[in-house]
Amino acid sequence: MQEHRSTSRVCDRFLNVCYICSVIAKHERRIGLARALSKLGYCSRSRAAQLIRAGRVSLNGRVRRDPEFPVHENRDQIAVDEKSVEPPRKIYLMMNKPRGVVTTASDEKGRTTVYDLLDSSLCAEGRNSPKQSWVAPVGRLDKASEGLLLLTNDSEWAARVAAPETHLEKTYHVQVARRADENFLNKLADGVRSKDGELLRAKRASILRSGMKNCWLEIVLDEGRNRQIRRMMDAVGVEVLRLVRVAIGPLQLGSLAKGQHRTLTSAEKEILDRAMGRSYERT
Questions:
Q1: What pLDDT, on the 0 to 100 scale, is given for residue 231?
Q2: How are beta strands 146-152 and 92-97 bridged, if at all?
Q3: Which CATH fold topology does 1-86 show?
Q4: At 164, is the pLDDT very low, low, confident or very high (cuts 50, 70, 90)?
C-alpha cells in the first residue's frame, strides 16, 4: 500500500513537471514575424510579409524588414505604423456558403469570395487599414460546393478542426445523376481508387431520396481529403449535380440562409470542442 502511494506521488510530480515544461515551452516558442502578426488576427501572413518588407512593422520598438525574423509570440510586442497590435477577441463564425463563391481572400479572376459576404470589420484583407478582427476560413469548400463553412481568427483551433487526425466527421448531402442502390453505397464505404491512385472511402453513405434519373445521398467523411466526394464520384463515372455540407461534427448548418453568417453560440463551440477531444482520444 505504501509503495503504491509512493509510486502515485512520483507519477503526479512527473505529470506536474511535464505540464510546467509544456507551459514554458509554449511561452518561449519562437515563430516568424509575419506568422506572429497573422496569428494576432491583424491580416493574412502574405499581407503581413508585405507590411514587414515595407518597413511598417516594428518588434519591441525596432523596425524589422525580415518576415521570418524570430518572435517570442507570448512576450514580444509588435506594432504596425507605430500602433501596438494586441491579441483580438476570438471570433468563431459559421456561414452558409452559396454555390459559385470561392473560399479565398482574393481571386485573380475577380470572382465573388466568401469575404464579399462578411461584414467589412471581419475581412480586412487587401484594405488600406486592416482590422484586428480579420478571420480566415477553416478548410475549404470548392466553388461548386455549398453549405457549412467555419471562419475564425483562432488559428490553433482552426488547425484542430481541419486536421485529418481528429477524424471529425463532415456530413454532406449530395445529388448525383443516377439512382443508387445498396451495392453502390457499399462501394463508397469499401473505398474506390481515384484517377491518381488514391484510395478514398466514405465513413457512411445512405439514400435520402430518389427520383427517376437522380438521387440525393447523405455521405459522411472523417478523413478530410481534398475534393474527396467529387473524386470518388468521378472514379465511378457518376456526375455530381449538387454538393452541400450540412454538418461538421455535431454542428449543424440548420436554417441559416444562403450567403448569411453568424457567430457560434458558446454551446455550439463547446460541443464541437468536445467532439474533437473525443476524436483525439480514439486515435
A1: 95
A2: antiparallel
A3: 3.10.290
A4: confident
Query: What letter would DSSP give residue 129?
Result: S
**Number of Cβ within a 10 Å radius of residue 156:** 8
Nine-digit cell at 225? Answer: 481529403
Q: Which CATH architecture has domain 169-248?
A: 2-Layer Sandwich (3.30)
Give the start-to-end residue ranges of the domains of the chain.
1-86, 92-164+254-282, 169-248
Is residue 272 within 8 Å of residue 248, measured between CB atoms? yes
Nearest partner of 143 among 209, 99, 186, 190, judged by Cα: 99
CA dihedral 72, 73, 79, 83 (to 10 degrees): -140
The whole-model pTM stands at 0.72
> Which amino acid is located at 237 in the chain?
G
Element holding 261 (H helix, E strand)? strand 261-263
Give dist(CA 8, CA 198) in Å, integer.
Answer: 47
Among all chains, which residue has been given the C-alpha cell 438521387?
A: 215
Which residues does the annotation mark as catalytic?
142
Using DSSP, state whether 13 is helix, strand or coil. Answer: helix
> Hey, how many other C-beta atoms are within 10 angstroms of the C-beta on 174?
24
